[in-house]
Amino acid sequence: MNLLPLLFLLPALLGLVPPMQVSAAPARQIHLLRPVMGSAGAAVKVKGVSCSSWQFGVETNSLRGWNTVPAGCESYFGHYMMGRRYREDSRAVAAAAAEYARGLQISSGGGKQIWVFDVDETSLSNLPYYSRHGFGVEPFNATLFDTWVATGTAPPLPESLKLYKELLSLGIKVVFLTGRAEEQRQITASNLKKAGYYSWEKLILRGNGALAHENALQFKSSERLKLTEQGYRIVGNIGDQWSDILGSPEGERTFKLPDPLYYIS
Ligand SMILES: [Mg+2]
Q: How close is the Cα of 52 to the center of ligand 1, in Å?
């Protein structure tokens, strides 16, 4: 009896061969989607709290001021961010925003209705960076992150890009408001355009000097106040951090995208 074919089959029979890769991924991936969900999820306990419960605390702004994702949750958040669920959660928020926008009376606004978009993890996705840096488990490294930003290659968050296009078609202008430094204006503008955000009313970055002591919430609130003082009406505001959407004037409606990877106060 010829045993040779059995020798080739043996690894597969023992489960030593990885399953065939499925290539039928959805269009407009952010970054190498991995269709695995929850395998390291609720079972992963961190100090008595599951990773998914920790995530709930983060997204409801109940857990504040944290520096890193719990070490045991890297795999959980890797699966969350790279799998379908992050996209589905983003889609639910962006779809609600679009539905709200379609109900607005834009034609009577004199062209002064604006929608404020945050940049990182809202308009652009830094998943290519965070996927190489532990999905929030590693302490934030500004030098490494700025090096990544300088490449100008962050992909769009597809759900936000779709919302952006719909808002423009409705006659709502977009203002990008970001905590990125003024020195990063050129690369940020070029990255936004490359990602499909081809025009905007304003791109507001964080300048140096007297306002350097402000936290993100104070900086963004004061910039929104300036916009209203310039006669703009902020009909909507979308961001991934609570500091994007808290602080008067918040905008007539706010929308919070998911982001369990980092916290900015
Ligand atoms: Mg952000």
A: 21
